[in-house]
């Protein structure tokens, strides 16, 4: 089935970028205009594309998704030695950003269906460990403040974000959505990343669209947006020629060259999502009646089908599939090793992570690129 979708004579990659739109002319524009770096019209234009598409009021472009998350956590009020609740089933970038701000991750279990943070697990953990004081949540056993929660929409499958936000609101916990994988995924009529106080996106080379490297902070809060821009642009006080900076900021602004790619990619996004949904439909049909579960979004939500995923019946089935496909030049991948099993995070609190551990042994990603045979549909 995979060789029917993708050219069988070549190695089938998990996810390859597609540059079939205006990428070349927009890049040439940047070079011709001399604006290649972090000041330029394309950065602003790309931010406007993302704001318009997601429905977020503000979008601030960054050098990558990890940098976006680093700054978003600070803006959400996370301070050194605070605790932040997140998933053990996520890509390392989520937890790296937590380390940069000196926060202690607390790993709460995911739902088996969405592969994302589970509201029941979150409620259970909070009722066992947290108490409210002055409108803020504190961990009874460690004495630390629980300042934020970072749910992640795994592979672009929307998690139960409204429930997560409601629980966090009731506990004075800020929600920062890691929407790095979910551009084009919707919870009802709202784009993923527009539920929490802030959210971050990634445009790394393997994501649904790419700027080479890049990220974005989105929010509806004007004050936070202004601070995001300030912190990511070396905290420079606007002035025609003087260099004055009023705090320790970051050089995290996305360069114009990368944004030029992003503008072209945004023009392709709707068509790419349409084609990716067709690829997903082929997988769904293929796995029907096989005993292998094809991961689907919940009713009422829409996935971007960034990476298609299946859940095998056992770890040995998983290993056999990984072995068989990779030895035949078809790239398949197991899901990430749980964060709670990595040396830097193995001492962190967690809730037992029953579902996370079960999924860790069984989930496999399948090749999910837009097939070359469909490229003609991307040309205007
Ligand atoms: C890709 C990704 C990020 C950000 O990655 P960058 O490579 O820094 O852009 C963050 N979280 C998750 C879950 C991701 O998949």
Write a compact overview of the structure shown.
The protein is α+β, with helices and mostly antiparallel strands. The protein has eleven helices and 16 strands.
Q: Which CATH C-level class is it?
A: Alpha Beta
CATH topology: Aspartate Aminotransferase, domain 2
Quick check: average pLDDT? 96
Shape: globular
User: Which sequence of SSEs, written as H and E, runs from N to C?
Assistant: HHHEHEHEHEEEHEEEEEHHEEEHEHE
Describe the protein in words.
This protein is α+β, with helices and mostly antiparallel strands and about 375 residues long. The protein has a single domain (about 25-265, about 335-360), classed as Aspartate Aminotransferase, domain 2 (3-Layer(aba) Sandwich). The protein is about 35% helix and about 15% strand. The strands form 3 sheets. Strands 1, 2, 3, 4, 5, 6, 7, 10 and 11 form a 9-stranded mixed sheet that branches. A 4-stranded antiparallel sheet has the order 12-14-16-15. A 3-stranded antiparallel sheet has the order 9-8-13, with no helix packed on it. Helix 2 (about 25-35) packs antiparallel against helix 9 and helix 4 crosses helix 5 (about 90-100). The longest helix has about 30 residues, at about 255-285. The two termini are about 30 Å apart. The relative contact order is 0.20. Pyridoxal-5'-phosphate binds next to helix 4 and helix 5.
